[in-house]
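Late entry, evening session. Most of the bench is empty. Finally got around to the prediction I had been postponing all week. Sequence below, unchanged from the version circulated by S.P.
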Amino acid sequence: MKKYETIELVCKAEIEESVRKRIAITGVRGLSLEKAQELGLFKRISLMLSAMELTFEAGKKIFKNVDKMLDELGIRKKDMAKACNEYEKAVHKFLGFWKEFAAKGYSDIDKQDDEYELYKNILRWAMLPVNWNLGDEQLVRESDVESSIVIDDEGNESILRLSKSVASEEVISCEDSWCVTKYDVETKKQECVCSDMDKASALMVAKRLSDDDKESIYAASQVLDVTKRETIVTPAKAFKANETVGKVSNKIKM
C-alpha cells in the first residue's frame, strides 16, 4: 500500500462482512466469493464506501456554507439554489443506501472528526481559507502555500515528494584581520579593545597593554567574519530517463 505524506483519513467503520453478505445475496458472475474474499475485494469495497460517505458528509458542509450565503442574498428560489437542493437530495439518497450496509458495522465511535478534517483538507487543497467572513481574502496567501513535485513511481511502494529544501552553509570572509582582546580575571569576561590590525601589530599592542594592566590578560586574536547563508531550492520540474515525471502539487502549510 502506498504511503502518502498528507493527512490520512481512515474510516472507522468495519462493514466488510455486511458487504460480503449483500453481494452474496445479489449473486456474482465473475470471481468466486471465496477468491474475492482472499484477494481483499470486500475489504476494498467497504473502505471505498466509507470514504464515499465521508466525502458526501464533507460536501454537505460545503453545501451548507453556500446555502447560507444564498439565503442571505434572498435568492433561494433561483437556479443556483435549486441545483444545491438537488445535490442535497442526492446526498440523502446515498446515505439511505449506505445505512443498509453500515448499520451493523458502526459502533458508538464519533465520525465527526474525520468528516471535519476531510472538509478542511478539501478547502486547503483548493487554497481556500477554512474560516471566511465577508470582506476577507478569497484565496490563501502565496506565502502560505508550499509547492512540491509528487512522483508516483510504479517501481516503488511509496509516493516520492520533491519538496522545497533549505541548504545552509557557513561562509567565511577571505579578509585576514586581527584584534586584541582583554580578559578580566575577576569578572571572567572578555572584550575586544583594538580591531582591524595585522598580526604583528596585534602581538605588539597586546604585549604592551599587558605590561600596563598586569591584572588582566591580553591576547592577539585572529578575526574571521563567519555568516550563515540559506539557499532555498524549490523543484519546478523533474525528469527520469529523459521523460518528465511527477506533477506539481500546491498545499497549504500546516
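Two things to note before I forget:
Residues 170-230 form one domain.
The first strand starts at residue 145 and ends at 151.
Will write this up properly tomorrow.
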